[in-house]
């Protein structure tokens, strides 16, 4: 079904034929807009931003580009087309018809999953709300706002499911999605990473590389769901999500490229000299990487999870790209896990495969993260330097799962708390690192100009030049 833009809420779910649902969502819409004004991007609401807007769910030509004031963005409800032959692809209901309605016994766990997913979307907008003021260029400012409006749309995607399939409970959850706030001591966002401040652009690029990539893997897992409307919703969200990770990937590449230029110009790798010249030294980049990667690893949940086992059994949430696995039941298999032996070492444990689904997904995620790191390292190699960036071990600085609270070095070697504390500033950004990075954050709003700590992108958006007026400030 094509997207109907005449409706108050653009949609391809024939909202007009369900007056009750339409009214409920129209009631939520002003609350969303109020939230956007209060906690969305600070200022810039009257700027004309060169944004893409979804106009169809086809893989080709699904979006148009044009100047939009953010509060006028057409946030809508778009589900990938229904496949009438789609069957449940894994778990105890393998091979049966997918569900168009939720079986009563799974209502509350499915609601919890949808709420958790939904909660991350406005959280990230809240985390990034002040970044516009320190954008390194109009190109970057536009990308920030593109990411923000699409996270807003992803919130709409989850709110639609809550309203359409969960009755009164769903409507209440939708309201609460606007009541919890990132970093709020009394009503924080559900998952840890989404309460971390993002107050500089290096963190923003790390977040869009590492944390949005968690989004990719969670959405892929939900796109396999036995509950078909959720699967179709997530399929389309993945189309938009790709750009967010691109922003992170190219953002980090551009920071590194600029650092390398400065290293070449100065003929030194000395971090102090590089900082003095206004670029981010590689050690600091590694520390930010360590911070955001380890925080994002926690988002996959515990490595041994009975929740994950029941999601898999019920078909509600599977493995990303389930098709790549031979055995879609995973009932007799076991998974070998490395866990702390509580004596300063490591031991292995065998657990049922279904209980290890969070870990399986986390492993796929780590492999995907590593692709970017390899690409960044090629920049270092080509420039003739031996320093390399790397992902820390999945045991490092964990707060969820078997390694939660266990001190290790970035290689994953268990160490004493005292040793960890002694080295902490070598591995993770400290106050001095953060204030240095903050000192670089000065907004650059002249057309075609770029802050000195980051290289320009290779190309602009939608075939426009890099110096295009991506945001018209008034
Ligand atoms: N922080 O059995 P466990 C995105 C909770 S990002 C705090 O280990 P389970 C985006 C967990 O909720 C993708 N709490 O975990 C990116 C559970 O609580 P309840 C977001 C945590 O349930 C950038 C309890 O611990 N989508 O889209 O197997 C910008 C025991 O849980 C954390 C999803 O997460 C944590 N890190 O799996 C914008 C998908 N980790 O329920 C957007 C939906 C776990 O007992 N969520 N807990 O009170 C899920 O699938 C699962 O809830 C999780 C955890 C993967 C998060």
Structure description:
With 474 residues, the protein is mainly alpha-helical. The protein is built from twelve helices and five strands. The chain has helices at 19-39, 107-127, 138-165, 167-177, 201-222, 228-266, 271-276, 282-298, 306-314, 357-382, 417-427, 431-440; strands at residues 48-54, 63-69, 334-340, 346-352, 471-472. The chain has a three-stranded antiparallel β-sheet. A two-stranded antiparallel ribbon has the order 3-4. A hairpin with an 8-residue loop joins strand 1 (48-54) and strand 2. Helix 2 (107-127) runs antiparallel to helix 3. The longest helix has 39 residues, at 228-266. The radius of gyration is 23 Å and the shape is globular.
Helix and strand layout, with pairings?
Elements: H1 19-39, E1 48-54, E2 63-69, H2 107-127, H3 138-165, H4 167-177, H5 201-222, H6 228-266, H7 271-276, H8 282-298, H9 306-314, E3 334-340, E4 346-352, H10 357-382, H11 417-427, H12 431-440, E5 471-472
Antiparallel strand pairs: 1-2, 1-5, 3-4
Short description, anyone?
The protein is mainly alpha-helical and 474 residues long.
Distance between the termini: 38 Å
CA-based gyration radius: 23 Å
Strand content is 5-15%
Low-confidence stretches: none
**Major sheet summary line:** 3 strands, antiparallel
What global shape is seen?
globular
* Helical/strand content category: mainly alpha
Average per-residue pLDDT, rounded, comes to 96
**Strand neighbour order, sheet with most strands:** 2-1-5
Order of helices and strands: HEEHHHHHHHHEEHHHE
Q: Give the % helix.
A: 40-55%
Q: Using DSSP, what is the number of strands?
A: 5
Write out the distinct hetero groups bound to the structure.
Answer: benzoyl coenzyme A
Number of helices: 12
